[in-house]
Inverse folding.
């Protein structure tokens, strides 16, 4: 799947993802901006085209980290750890974007920067977990222990997601405040909007795949330098 | 063969402490580990025990290994009796710890913070004897021991030979020559 | 299995002998509750409303401190190696350290409950369900705390990482425990509170298992 081989330069597939993704990005922007405004939220809803894909990819990235952390714990192959870590880095960026866009969306729409909306809160928690992932890696000098510790955090952190989500959701449901839903559920999706959304989702997925492979490649180079 | 090291190298940060080491330990052997301070003797013993993993290479072990550190590590708020009791239980063994304490001239009911360093060394030896591993790793056991203590050390080494194999890191050349079958010296280029 | 119990009892014995540790922990705890009562009071209503939250914040702090202590002693004395050289898998060390903390945290949480009743007007009528909530919550918190404390113990001076790593994982425990406690205190029927208990139970089972399995991996150097 995403296993990087031991190359001297990024392979063709990596370039393909990156180039395609970057090339399609302005197309995605155009498609997003030319889609009709939402019935309820007007032009404001357009931030969704950035928010939803980044959030979705953030979660996908951490799922990949979870999988490869497990693989590393079972097989001890450093390549798995490199993928896990690359995915966590890219995931952190995407999650950060998702949080920021979420807050930017919330402010004009509901007047507050932060709501304890279950999805947003769970995203923030997961973001904190992965900040911890990198802080821990930085704090451990022994390479082998660092990888194992990070893999453990990757596993423990991800299985936390469903439990955290449920707990925040129930917690919120106690209060009869309006259910603030930052995703497409509350927005009537015209077909053009859905297309635009899916297109941007595709673009960002390509970028994700490209970045992770590239980062993995860089990590392989770093590892090779360490060996010498 | 109780212990085998194949191409073992260990690095801390950017420093290679051990490089491409091959070693094997047979039952009934006593090997002296020699070398100046900082040559990596303690690191090597910890690798043999399994407390450290090699950066490269492999460590194979048949049976249990125990390490007598320098200085030995104890919980100072326990008495000798309590400590041995717990240690035996954690290793799933039984033994005559009262007899061992008597043999090594150690009081049962005194908290370990009242022990001198020589007494702690003796206690560590008694503990090793009771736990009786297959691989005995001793890091400078002769330090802090008086004449009677050294006698006990020699007895322990003799019994260890009968039960397994010994690697003995030491600065005491005379001791090494007296008890060891061969020597491994670190710190060479 | 026996070694789990013995390790917990040994650590307990050590804590009792070295009295200063336990006493300072208790003192810190009492002062914390006192200060929070001062900050949030003196009217009864806001205190009572804040009580479940305050209770669990105090317990969270206690658990974090206690988990570092559980391993700090080993590192101080250099005895962690001896535990690692015991035969068989090392999960028992995790369970032993966890049990040690639980043996201290349960009486402590009882004390906390009593102090909350006194300082924060927390009603104690439904004692048994409250105790059950304490049990589930404390177990959940300690299960993760033990894992991370063990991991960080050997990294000199990295204990500062413990709160960060810990708090991001234990959000469900804190939320559920506070909600369950508040629900019980407000007189909700047990059936409604039971949802939170179920969530706590799931967390506990998942994290005790996962932590126990991962613990030996991160202890080896």
């Amino acid at each position: 799947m995403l296993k990087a081989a031991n190359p001297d330069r990024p392979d063709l597939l990596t370039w393909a993802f990156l180039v395609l993704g970057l090339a399609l990005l302005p197309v995605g922007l155009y498609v997003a901006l030319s889609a009709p405004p939402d019935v309820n939220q007007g032009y404001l809803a357009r931030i969704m085209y950035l928010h939803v894909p980044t959030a979705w990819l953030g979660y996908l990235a951490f799922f990949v980290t979870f999988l490869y952390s497990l693989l590393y714990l079972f097989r001890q192959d450093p390549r798995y750890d490199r993928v896990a870590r690359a995915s966590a880095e890219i995931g952190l960026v995407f999650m950060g974007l998702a949080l920021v866009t979420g807050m930017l969306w919330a402010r004009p729409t509901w007047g507050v920067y932060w709501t304890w909306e279950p999805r947003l809160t769970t995203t923030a928690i997961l973001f904190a977990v992965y900040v911890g992932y990198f802080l821990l890696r930085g704090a451990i000098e022994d390479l082998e222990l660092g990888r194992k510790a990070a893999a453990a955090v990757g596993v423990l952190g991800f299985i936390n997601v469903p439990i955290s989500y449920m707990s925040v959701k129930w917690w919120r449901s106690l209060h009869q405040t309006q259910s603030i839903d930052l995703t497409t559920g509350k927005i009537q999706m015209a077909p053009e909007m859905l297309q635009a959304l899916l297109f941007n989702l595709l673009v960002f997925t390509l970028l994700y795949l490209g970045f992770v492979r590239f980062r993995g490649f860089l990590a392989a180079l770093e590892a090779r330098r360490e060996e010498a | 063969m109780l212990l085998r090291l194949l191409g073992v190298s260990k690095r801390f940060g950017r420093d290679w402490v051990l490089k491409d080491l091959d070693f094997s330990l047979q039952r009934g052997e006593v090997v002296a580990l020699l070398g100046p301070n900082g040559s990596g003797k303690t690191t090597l013993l910890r690798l043999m025990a399994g407390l450290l993993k090699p950066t490269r290479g492999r460590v194979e072990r048949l049976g249990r290994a125990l390490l007598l550190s320098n200085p030995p590590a104890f919980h100072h708020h326990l008495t000798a009796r309590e400590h041995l009791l717990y240690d035996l239980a954690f290793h799933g063994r039984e033994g005559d710890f009262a007899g061992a304490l008597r043999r090594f001239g150690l009081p049962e009911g005194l908290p370990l913070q009242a022990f001198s360093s020589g007494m702690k060394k003796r206690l560590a030896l008694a503990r090793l004897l009771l736990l009786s591993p297959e691989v005995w790793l001793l890091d400078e056991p002769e330090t802090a021991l008086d004449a009677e203590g050294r006698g006990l050390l020699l007895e322990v080494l003799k019994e260890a030979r009968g039960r397994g194999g010994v690697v003995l890191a030491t600065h005491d050349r005379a001791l090494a020559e007296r008890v060891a079958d061969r020597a491994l010296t670190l710190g060479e280029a | 299995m026996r070694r789990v119990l013995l390790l917990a009892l040994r650590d307990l014995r050590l804590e009792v002998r070295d009295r200063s540790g336990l006493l300072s922990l208790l003192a810190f705890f009492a002062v914390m509750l006192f200060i929070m009562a001062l900050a949030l009071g003196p009217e009864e209503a806001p205190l009572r409303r804040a009580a479940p939250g305050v209770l669990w914040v105090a317990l969270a702090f206690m658990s974090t401190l206690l988990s570092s202590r559980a391993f700090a002693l080993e590192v101080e004395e250099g005895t962690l190696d001896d535990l690692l050289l015991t035969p068989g898998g090392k999960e028992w060390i995790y369970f032993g350290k966890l049990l040690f903390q639980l043996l201290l945290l349960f009486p402590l949480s009882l004390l906390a409950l009593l102090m909350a009743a006194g300082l924060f007007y927390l009603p104690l009528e439904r004692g048994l369900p409250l105790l059950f909530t304490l049990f589930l919550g404390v177990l959940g918190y300690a299960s993760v705390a033990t894992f991370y404390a063990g991991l960080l113990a050997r990294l000199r001076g990295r204990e500062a990482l413990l709160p960060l790593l810990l708090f991001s994982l234990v959000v469900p425990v804190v939320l559920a425990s506070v909600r369950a406690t508040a629900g019980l205190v407000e007189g909700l029927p047990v059936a409604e509170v039971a949802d939170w208990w179920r969530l706590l139970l799931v967390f506990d089972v998942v994290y005790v298992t996962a932590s126990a399995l991962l613990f030996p991996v991160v202890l080896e150097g």
In short: The two ends of chain A are 28 Å apart (CA to CA). The CA atoms of residues 45 and 77 of chain A lie 44 Å apart.
